Amino acid sequence: MTARTKLLLLTSLFAGLTFHLFPQKPFTLQQKTAQCAKIKAACQYAWAGYKQYANGFDALAPLSKKGHNWYSVSFMMTPLDAFDTFYLMGLKDEAAQAKEMVINGLSFDVDVEVQLFEVNIRLLGGLISAYELSGDERLLNLAKNLGIRLFPAFNSPTGMPYRYVNLKTGKTRDSLSNPAEIGTYLLEFGKLTRLTHDSSFYKAAKRAAFEVYRRRSDIDLVGTTINVNTGAWKNTESQIGARIDSYYEYLYKAWLLFGDTDCKQAWEVHNRAIKKYLYTEVPSGAYFTRVDMRSGKETHSLYGALDAFYAGILALSGDVATARKIQKGNFHMWTTFNIEPEEFNFRTDSVLYPEYPLRPENIESCFYLYRKTHDPEYLRMGQRMINDILEKCKTEAGYAEMKNVKILEKSDSMESFFLAETLKYAYLLFAPENTLDLSKVVFNTEAHPFRIKN
Ligand code: DMJ
Question: One of 118, 249, 340, 421 is an active-site residue; which one?
Answer without folding.
Answer: 118
